């Protein structure tokens, strides 16, 4: 390593090392958790330690009706803890931020805190704080405040580091919110899938059981022969057993991830092998192109489409053969499920039947499209096209 030639170069190197150390510590704290509260508290603690500060708090912007709210705090002075109403509503730094006047590293500076100014006692010597604006893609997220009882004039270096910390925190906030939205979206998608499956399996099964038992009741009241009555009861029992099997399968689908750590190709292979071994429908799988890992939601969604399409073919089409083809292209993923069943008229689908609707919804939720080709006596072909950009 070349020797430092001057005190100026040594000071610059020391300053850069300090900046990198601080930013690395902050980044590690943010990457330690995707939970928003944990991330905010971790950054507050890191900033307080690295800058030798005492107190910090974070304001985040809620919706228009609720306004800014205190999202996290670190070692607030007793006066603010005992008077929580002082930490509600707006203040000088929030007003400045919302007006667009608190933007950029040059505006990260020490200001008199209008909340601390209201305290007669219990301020622990605090009167000033630095306000760091937080943005994500130009969108206002909130303000990050840090304070110390013996505040010094902030250097340009500290201002720049604090502003960068604000940017990192803004990214972490947006990431946590997107993760929560994704989780909620996934839960809603799975609820819709379960609703469709219950309607197409359990509800129809219970309807069939009810009809068979009502028939047995009528036969019994009309003093019909024992054999006729038993036939209706046995049919009801068969439907009950089939519905129980479907219910167990749905519960297992909910308890375990469908891919269970496997890639899409391996999961589809297990699916078609399982159907072929345990049912009347013989299914084959063909793949084309170079298989590569895909985002989890895409692999899960495409697996579910294949699973539901094959389930529909097995239950409703009287097919004896089905084909699943998966093709990897540089910018697209193509999935085709075809059977040799009796087909149907898509314009006359039974009202409330969710099978095809569910498949179309899944494809759209993944950002793709679904094309259906079928007709009476022609079999059924379902083609899903999913862009990978």
Explained architecture:
- The two termini are 44 Å apart.
- The chain has 389 residues and is an alpha+beta fold.
- The longest helix has 66 residues, at 156-221.
- A hairpin with a 2-residue loop joins strand 4 and strand 5 (139-147).
- It folds into two domains: 7-180, 2-Layer Sandwich (Beta-Lactamase); 259-389, 2-Layer Sandwich (Heat Shock Protein 90), CATH 3.30.565.
- The model has no long low-confidence stretch (mean pLDDT 79).
- A five-stranded antiparallel sheet has the order 2-1-5-4-3, sandwiched between helices.
- It has ten helices and ten strands.
- It is elongated, with a radius of gyration of 32 Å.
- Helix 1 packs antiparallel against helix 2 and helix 8 packs parallel to helix 9 (296-316).
- The chain has helices at residues 7-31, 36-50, 78-82, 92-98, 114-117, 156-221, 226-255, 264-278, 296-316, 355-365, and strands at residues 55-61, 68-74, 110-112, 128-136, 139-147, 282-288, 321-328, 332-339, 369-374, 380-387.
């Amino acid at each position: 390593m070349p020797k430092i030639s001057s005190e100026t170069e040594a000071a610059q190197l020391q300053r850069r090392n300090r900046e990198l150390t601080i930013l690395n510590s902050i980044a590690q704290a943010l990457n330690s958790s995707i939970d928003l509260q944990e991330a905010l508290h971790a950054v507050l603690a890191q900033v307080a330690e690295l800058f030798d500060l005492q107190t910090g708090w974070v304001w985040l912007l809620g919706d228009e009706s609720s306004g800014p709210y205190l999202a996290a705090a670190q070692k607030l002075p007793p006066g603010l803890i005992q008077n929580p109403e002082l930490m509600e509503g707006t203040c000088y730094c929030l007003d400045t931020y919302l007006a667009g006047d608190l933007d950029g590293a040059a505006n990260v500076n020490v200001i008199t805190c209008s909340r601390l100014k209201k305290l007669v006692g219990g301020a622990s010597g605090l009167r000033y704080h630095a306000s760091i604006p937080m943005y994500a893609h130009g969108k206002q997220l909130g303000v990050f405040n840090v304070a110390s009882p013996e505040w010094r004039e902030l250097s340009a270096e500290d201002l720049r580091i604090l502003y960068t910390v604000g940017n990192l925190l803004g990214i972490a906030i947006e990431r946590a919110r997107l993760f929560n939205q994704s989780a909620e979206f996934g839960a809603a998608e799975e609820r819709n899938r379960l609703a469709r499956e219950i309607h197409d399996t359990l509800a129809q099964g219970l309807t069939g059981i009810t009809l068979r038992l009502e028939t047995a009741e009528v036969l019994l009241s009309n003093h019909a022969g024992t054999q006729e009555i038993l036939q209706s009861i046995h049919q009801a029992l068969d439907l009950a057993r089939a519905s129980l099997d479907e219910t167990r399968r749905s519960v297992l689908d909910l308890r375990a991830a469908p891919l269970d750590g496997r890639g899409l190709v391996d999961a589809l292979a297990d699916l078609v092998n399982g159907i072929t071994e345990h049912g009347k429908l013989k299914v084959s799988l063909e793949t084309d192109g170079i298989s590569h890992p895909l985002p989890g939601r895409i692999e899960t969604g495409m697996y579910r489409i294949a699973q539901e399409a094959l389930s529909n073919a097995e239950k409703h089409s009287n097919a004896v053969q089905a084909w699943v083809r998966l093709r990897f292209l540089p910018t697209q993923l193509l999935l085709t499920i075809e059977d040799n069943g009796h087909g149907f008229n898509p314009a006359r689908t039974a009202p409330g039947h969710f099978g095809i609707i569910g498949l179309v919804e899944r494809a759209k939720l993944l950002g793709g499209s679904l094309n259906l080709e079928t007709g009476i006596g022609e079999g059924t072909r379902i083609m899903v096209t999913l862009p990978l950009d």
